[in-house]
Design goal:
Strand order of the largest sheet of chain A: 2-11-10-6-7
Strand content of chain A: 25-35%
Number of domains of chain B: 3
Number of domains of chain A: 2
Oligomer: heterodimer
Structural class of chain B: alpha+beta
Shape of chain A: elongated
Order of helices and strands of chain A: HEEHHEEEEEEEEEEEEHEEHEEH
Shape of chain B: elongated
Number of strands of chain B: 19
Distance between the termini of chain A: 35 Å
Number of strands of chain A: 18
Number of helices of chain A: 6
Structural class of chain A: alpha+beta
Distance between the termini of chain B: 56 Å
Strand content of chain B: 5-15%
Number of helices of chain B: 23
Radius of gyration of chain A: 30 Å
Largest sheet of chain A: 5 strands, antiparallel
Largest interface: A-B, 52 and 65 residues
Chain lengths: 330, 649
């Protein structure tokens, strides 16, 4: 009963709006304001000063006390105006791997000439990013949230707040911006050998990589052809390295779910595939991805990498469902 | 864990504290001043050098030491002086241990509190201005605490604090004028609340008035409603002294309060006195007071005594009669008291008086003889008389013959009593200086005076001023003309340096206005102010309504100023008119898409609301022509504005 009432009161006061697309202008009814603990202490000091002024009949005591009372009141307007009329819109969010921190950027645009100071952005009340927004300028506040699982991470409701200028009031606005971060699967440890390439004719080729254009060196793995070992480097005491060659049209690298041991669980498989995508991209190879329900044709470059990683991130996940509720913050 | 404060925060706080505590520094014991200064410098050093702040136990030891020191110094921990001393040191120590933003806020609040303690000692205009500057610095320090990325320099802190204070003045004025005032202390004040004020005391011994004449402090100021009497008639009646122990005169411990009886023999003089606090009960009025001020009583010997000591500036309306008869029916007991002399003291004076009595049977003739003796023999009026022995009247009359008004009054009264004429001493002030700037009279402590009253059958108590016999100038033109030029006198009492005097008088006039209007604003004045705007018998309720109304009005009219410069300003009237048009449509649920051009918007509107087509088309066409075309005709701009104004979706 009490909880229901509380919930209703909360809804009535704060009017949750749900996710809002586009930008938000902090009009008057979006900005809430309450005195801080310091504000309450300040009020108590003023009461003491008033009693002192009455008791000692100090006219200037009255003047000072009333000046501070008026200032305490005006500080509320000053604190409100520090947030009012800011236009807030979501910034670009770069995808991250699970286990990393997603950086959610929020842009604050100040349409007026008055500078705004010390505006904090937080998702959890503990950690805040502070920015100043100069008159007619913009600022970006970014908060980091630890991405625990792959999929789509939303920061949930953010709070934009300020205590400037006197710290007597706390003015805040709730932001439910359409912020999302794609979280790729956790990256399997480096050193996982890439699967062998297939020839375009479809015959199984022994060695996956192309053999024409030298593209770099990597750590030697058991089973690498001795022909590809960089003997010169070995002679210089750099250990065994394997020469890598970029792919050729006729040798196709398929990062295939089915090549992984059947005993692995789904997340481990996705981690390995993620590592393969990253390594293959780093080597500048052309590659394709085959996972249950989705196949991405051969390709190379950043776009191909991002497309594949995104497919891995969203494997088995409904894109429109929010998994931000169980995120854990930095 | 609250955020820690930066070195810049620390410097602001240290500066604010030093400024507020500075006026106290001269009043506090030197070791407190020194200690507080050292603590602040130490804190600044620790901040600069990025060193650890001292441990709690060390601070605790200092606190205990200081408390003990203050107790030893003042013999109490309470009261005004000890309280201020403790507050100053504790605030310095709080600053020393301030790490977090929360502690710093407390330092700021205590700083404001320290400002108010300064008013216990002085409420003059310079003090007020200085402390206003202090409030500005404290507020700037508080703002500085609330920056997360402080802007360079100090300007922002100054400007924001200044803006806040200026915006707060109107509301402050409303509160000052209409906040319900209650008179008097809410509880007993510490005994030392009002020490350090000068004024007449209830005793008089040789030399006691001389000390007062060294002070040019104002005793009271007077505004006359009728013409100002001659200086020689301005006897400001104060304590009346009946008891004499051979050396010192004392006011009666018990006073007989009854309606004083007198016969007025001249027209009354109307005036208002604004008395400076002197921590005693006397109120002063021209001899003879014809009225009793509120919250005061008159004794049978015409002393006006306030019910409570005068601890704050007070103003009272008075009327007086320069010529009046009083005390015709003085009782037997009163006359006996007015004849009492301690046996064995001043024997030569007693002997001399008996001789006079033998020669003059008539009281008036005897009095005239004594006055002519003062006038004709070699008596001198001086501020630096020689020391007197155990029989001061004997010494004065027969050997030194140099004295100030208390010497003459005392000698005269003793002579009279010894000769069988009832006599008493009246102390008060004589004369006063008219300030042409503001047209009121200033009476200073330097105008302190003592005279006598003798009782004559059929005439009652009659004033006799023996000083007038010795030095008529004292009575006619004031003390500066009466004493030798080599005698020390306060600057304002001497007539030299005309220009400087003019400036001082002009300043006194400003100070008087400040005293009357600002410092003297109390319940009475509040009532009078409200009566002027037609609110009689103001109760707390009416005051609350007036206050709420005034505050609401002020906030409503000031808020737009405080909320300026938050929006994009559009200077182009054409664009402004078009945006107003769009706003009207938005309110009707037909908002323009941010990327939609005016013509596209108009077409979309025409599909949804065919009824609006003529108005929308006209406005859109005008707007496009004025904004994107070559058209600049001001008449068309006005036409656009008119159409938008009349547009109703």
């Amino acid at each position: 009963m009490y909880a229901a009432l509380k919930n209703q009161l909360y809804n009535w006061i704060f009017r949750p709006r749900g996710l809002e697309s586009g930008s938000i202008v902090l009009v008057q009814r979006r900005v809430f304001i309450l005195p801080t603990r310091q504000g309450i202490v300040f009020g108590a000091v003023l009461v003491l000063m008033l009693i002192g002024a009455i008791n000692y009949g100090l006219s200037l005591g009255f003047v000072l006390t009333f000046l501070l009372v008026a200032m305490g009141f005006n500080a509320m307007i000053y604190t409100f105006r520090n947030l009012a009329n800011l236009r807030i819109y979501p910034g670009r969010t770069r995808p991250v791997f699970a286990g990393e921190h997603a950086q959610f950027a929020v842009c604050l645009a100040n349409p007026g000439a008055a500078d705004r100071y010390s505006i904090g952005l937080t998702s959890n009340k503990r950690d805040s990013a502070f920015v100043d927004v100069p008159g007619q300028g913009e600022a970006i506040a970014a908060i980091g949230i630890r991405a625990v699982r792959r999929g789509i991470l939303r920061p949930g409701r953010l709070t934009l707040y300020t205590r400037y200028p006197l710290g007597l009031y706390y003015a805040w606005a709730y932001l439910e911006l359409d912020l999302r971060c794609i979280v790729y699967p956790r990256l399997a440890p480096a050193g996982l050998p890439l699967p062998p390439a297939e020839s375009s004719a479809g015959q199984g080729a022994q060695h996956g990589q192309g053999q024409e254009d030298f593209s770099g060196l990597r750590q030697y793995h058991l089973g690498d052809s001795p022909r590809h070992i960089a003997w010169k480097a070995a002679a210089r005491d750099r250990g065994l390295l394997t020469k890598q060659f970029s792919g050729r049209a006729d040798s196709e690298l398929w990062l295939d779910w089915r090549r992984l041991p059947p005993g692995m669980n789904v997340e481990e498989k996705l981690s390995c595939l993620t590592r393969w995508v990253v390594d293959a991209h780093a080597l500048g190879m052309a590659f394709g991805l085959r996972i249950p329900g989705k196949t991405i044709a051969l390709g190379a470059g950043d776009l191909q990498r991002d497309r594949c990683l995104e497919a891995l991130a969203l494997h088995g996940i409904d894109e429109n469902r929010d998994n931000g509720s169980d995120h854990q913050s930095a | 864990m609250a955020p820690t404060i930066s070195l810049r925060n620390t410097l602001w706080l240290a500066a604010a504290f030093t400024m507020v505590a500075a006026p106290h520094a001269v009043r506090l014991p030197w070791w407190i001043t020194l200690l507080a200064l050292m603590i602040v410098l130490w804190r600044v050093y620790l901040g600069r050098a990025r060193l650890e702040l001292p441990r709690k136990w060390l601070l605790l030891i200092v606190v205990m030491g200081v408390t003990a020191g203050v107790y030893l110094n003042y013999r109490t921990l309470f009261g005004r002086d000890a309280g201020v001393a403790l507050l100053v040191v504790m605030l310095a120590l709080k600053l020393l241990e301030t790490r977090s933003q929360r502690d710093a806020a407390l330092v700021v609040f205590l700083g404001y509190f320290l400002v108010i303690t300064n008013f216990l000692f002085s409420q003059t205009i310079p003090t007020a201005l200085y402390l206003l500057a202090c409030v500005w610095v404290i507020t700037a320090a508080m703002i500085d605490l609330n920056y997360t990325q402080p802007p360079a320099g100090y300007r922002n802190q100054w400007r924001t604090a200044g803006g806040l204070l200026v915006h707060s003045v109107p509301l402050m004025l409303a509160l000052f004028l209409f906040f319900p005032r209650v008179p008097g202390p809410l509880w007993g004040l510490p005994h030392d609340a009002y020490t350090g004020v000068t004024g007449l005391s209830d005793t008089m011994s040789p030399g006691s008035l001389i000390d007062l004449t060294l002070s040019d402090a104002v005793a009271f100021r007077v505004e006359f409603k009728s013409t100002i009497p001659e200086p020689g008639q301005l006897y400001w009646r104060g304590p009346v002294m009946w008891n004499f122990d051979g050396y010192t005169w004392t006011a009666a411990r018990r006073n007989y309060y009854r309606e004083p009886q007198f016969q007025a023999r001249s027209a009354p003089i109307e005036y208002a006195v604004t008395i400076e606090p002197h921590n005693q009960r006397w109120l002063f009025a021209i001899d003879l007071p014809g009225r009793v001020p509120p919250r005061a009583a008159a004794s049978s010997d015409f002393q006006l005594r306030s019910f409570a000591p005068v601890t704050s500036r007070q103003r009272y309306e008075m009327s007086s009669y320069l010529d009046a008869r009083y005390g015709l029916d003085e009782g037997e007991a009163g006359l006996r008291r007015a004849l009492a002399l301690p046996p064995g003291t001043n024997p030569r004076t007693a002997e001399f008086a008996r001789g006079l009595r033998g020669r003059f049977a008539d009281d008036k003739a005897l009095i005239a003889e004594v006055l002519s003796m003062f006038r004709n023999e070699s008596f001198f009026y001086t501020l630096s008389p020689p020391q007197l022995g155990n029989d001061p009247v004997d010494d004065f009359l027969f050997s030194t013959r140099r004295g100030f008004c208390e010497h003459y009054a005392s000698a005269f009264a003793v002579l009279m009593r010894a000769a069988g004429i009832p006599a008493r001493i009246v102390t008060g002030y004589l004369g006063g200086e008219v300030n042409p700037v503001g047209n009121y009279m200033i009476v200073r402590q330097a105008d302190a005076h003592a005279w006598t009253e003798v009782w004559i059958r059929g005439e009652g108590w009659v004033r006799v001023d023996p000083t007038a016999a010795v030095s008529p100038q004292r009575v006619q033109t004031g003390i500066a003309a009466a004493v030798p030029r080599t005698d020390p006198l306060p600057f304002m009492v001497r007539g030299d340096y005309a220009l400087l005097r003019q400036l001082r008088l002009a300043w006194d006039s400003v100070a008087n206005g400040w005293n009357q209007r600002v410092l003297g604003y109390n319940q009475d004045r509040q009532r009078r102010l409200l009566a002027q705007v037609g609110i009689d018998d103001a109760t707390w309720r009416t005051l609350a309504i007036v206050l709420a109304g005034a505050s609401g009005l002020i906030v409503l009219s000031l808020a737009p100023f405080m909320l300026r410069r938050l929006r994009t300003r559009i200077d182009d009237p054409v664009k402004r008119a078009y945006l107003a048009f769009c706003a009207k449509l938005r309110r009707k649920g037909l908002p323009r898409d941010p990327a939609e051009g005016p013509s596209d918007y108009a077409m979309r509107l025409a599909r949804g609301r065919p009824d609006l087509v003529p108005a929308v088309t006209a406005i859109t066409r005008l707007y496009v022509a004025l904004r994107y075309g070559a058209e600049t005709n001001p008449a068309l701009v006005r036409d656009l504005q008119r159409r938008v104004r009349e547009f109703a979706a």
